[in-house]
Amino acid sequence: MESHLVFARKYRPNKFSEVVCQEVPVGAIQNAIKNNRVGHAYIFFGPRGVGKTTIARILAKRLNCQNPKETEPCNECQSCVEITKGVSNDVVEIDAASNRSIDDVRELREGVKFNAMGGKYRIFIIDEVHMLTTQAFNALLKTLEEPPRHVVFVLATTDQHKVPDTILSRCQDFVFKKVPIIDLQDHIERLAKTENLTYDSEGLFWIAKKGDGSVRDTLSFLEQVVTFTGGKLTGENLKKILGLRGVTQQIEFSKFLLSDESSTKAIEFLEKEFSLGSDLQKFIWEYLDFIHTTILVRENIYDKESINFTSEDVSLIQKEMQNFRMETLNLLAERFFQIYERVALLRLRSSYETKLYLEIQVRKLVSDLNKPTVSGLVAKIFELSQMIQKDINHLPAEKPKSAMTNEGIEPIQKTSDLDLEAGIKNTFSGVEVDENFPQID
């Protein structure tokens, strides 16, 4: 029985044209090949899973290809086939994470002396090169600066700042970027069609979002999703796998916090989440992300690539959260970040302890939200002064002397039309909170 080949290996690019969204480094390498200006040492920087080692292998195949097609390898000759299978004697791949000592580099330097056996070049690909020790870097330095004419070095790393400047100065460097979500969605949609999978746009969005800009991570998660769902890549299935609560629940929780004077409904919401086995620390972070996204949406400065919500969710946020004050949303974001930070710092031993702490903070938050802010007080005082001034302006211009007191000043009469005490109460009720404003007893 033939063993199963996972998507990350099955759909690994074999040509430059198959690489996803790395036009700058790929274009530069192809120009070097076209103009016969291939360097002796390259260093690739970038996040995991975006094609650094893959492009190094494609470069190795093109340099030793027996029947190249312009800047692309043929992938059919003996050299290309051996490199694809990983059995070529002319391509040496070294994992610097496990071969990082000076002895490993000395062994590499000895291997550099031998000519290529089946092609024109010997290519040394050193992955995670930043893991080499200082002594190993020093041992590599001279060889990297003046290697034999038949040797090409390709170094790859995710941590550029850990590579010594002496190494960087001897290499041509190429920066690889994270792959945008839209490009990842297009890529896995093509694969889904090839594999005859059922999918919708929301399902592809969550798969691409989970990949976090990494093609390899995206394909690995796609493999997992196909196994779990039987090939049905729908938004509903993906939400279940990822444990996403959905934007409707977060909107509901927001209304409990912001629309009620009592914390009862918000606490009942948390109790229900706890009884369903939800990870409350994850819930805090997801709600913080929701509030932050709401602020970005309200200010119309959000980027589809930087938020964790679909276009349908964004539309719902715009509709349901438009009536809440920006000052209150900013306060919610700040307070929930403080709650998340505190929970992480306390390292609470159980979900019950997290629930207890969260409920205490929510009660305090709801209470604070129903206390006045400085801006709210100023606005209400101004409104009240306008109301009083309006009533004063309606008083008669002159009063008979009989209505005057001994001091010559008319006493203010209490009337049902102007009950100041009731007016003040009605005016100041429901003013938003400012936690930095000193409370008035």
Please supply descriptive tags for the structure shown above:
441 residues, alpha/beta, five-stranded parallel β-sheet, 7 strands, elongated
Strand content: 5-15%
Total of helices: 19
In angstroms, what is the radius of gyration?
A: 33 Å
The amount of helix comes to 40-55%
The run of helices and strands is HHEHHEHEHEHEHEHHEHHHHHHHHH
Provide the spatial order of strands within the biggest beta sheet: 2-3-4-1-5
Overview of the structural elements:
With 441 residues, the chain is α/β, with parallel strands linked by helices. It has helices at residues 7-10, 23-34, 52-64, 78-85, 102-112, 134-145, 165-168, 181-194, 201-211, 215-229, 235-242, 247-259, 264-275, 280-298, 311-320, 326-346, 351-369, 374-393, 420-428, and strands spanning 41-45, 91-95, 122-127, 151-157, 172-175, 198-199, 232-233. The protein has a 5-stranded parallel beta sheet with strand order 2-3-4-1-5, covered by helices on one side. Helix 3 packs antiparallel against helix 4 (78-85).
